Amino acid sequence: MSSSITNNLVPVISKAKFDDEATAFLSKYCPEALETPMAVPIKDIARKKLGLTILEKRLTEDFSILGQMCFTGGLAEIYDRENDEYHEIKVKAGTMIIDPDTLLKRNLGCMNNTIAHESVHWVKHRNYHILQSVLDGKSAVAFRCPAEQKDERFKKEWADEDWMEWHANGIAPRILMPIQTVGSTFERLMTESQANPFIAANLMPPTRWVIEQLADFYKVSKQSAEIRLKELGHLPV
Predict the structure, then answer these.
(1) pLDDT tens digits, residue range 124-143?
(2) End residue of a domain, out of 148, 176, 204
């Protein structure tokens, strides 16, 4: 993975390198996913390979934060829906907190992407956050990841945290849908679509069916699958 960093220990990663970063991640933690098309077992990777603890807790009242990575031990704030109040829980370093409604209100693909997203933070951005804990004298440092993505039109105004969030947003779906296997999976599904009676009767466009099937195969959201196929040139932008 990228070795270039800023003085604050933030990795310098261009968008053109996101696939390289995803490949490096999988080479270390799930090399078989680079050879054989499969749904990347991201939850198992996070727990068994990265040694992370995954907690499912509501983080905000308005579902504005999907996940949080705790880089050091201490207290983390969560939202208690039953009592309609915020309170703190004790966590250890390497605790990933995922809002359970990421699955209930969205889908498994969104949950998997959030886990991959937080895993990227742990692998790529841990040194930055540990440095901040030393400089600030805090006992716990966590990074909360909002549901809304950063607007790339305002990159000149981004802080360190914005760049790291951009990294995780870009690398996570590439981990779940590796460049090494998406093309062959797409071609297989396009061939299979020819036997679909709804497509043959012009009741469904083949690309819509392929997007749905690819999303189900990789256990990602349909939106993420469509974006990935367009990035790689398999669908028109």
Answers:
(1) 998 888 777 766 655 456 77
(2) 176
Of 176, 204, 226, the residue at which a domain comes to its end is 176
Domain assignment of residue 29, yes or no: yes
User: Over the stretch 106-122, which tens digit does the pLDDT of each residue have?
Assistant: 788 889 999 999 999 99
Expressed as residue numbers, the domain containing 222 is 179-237
- Look up residue 218 and give its two tokens: 């990789």
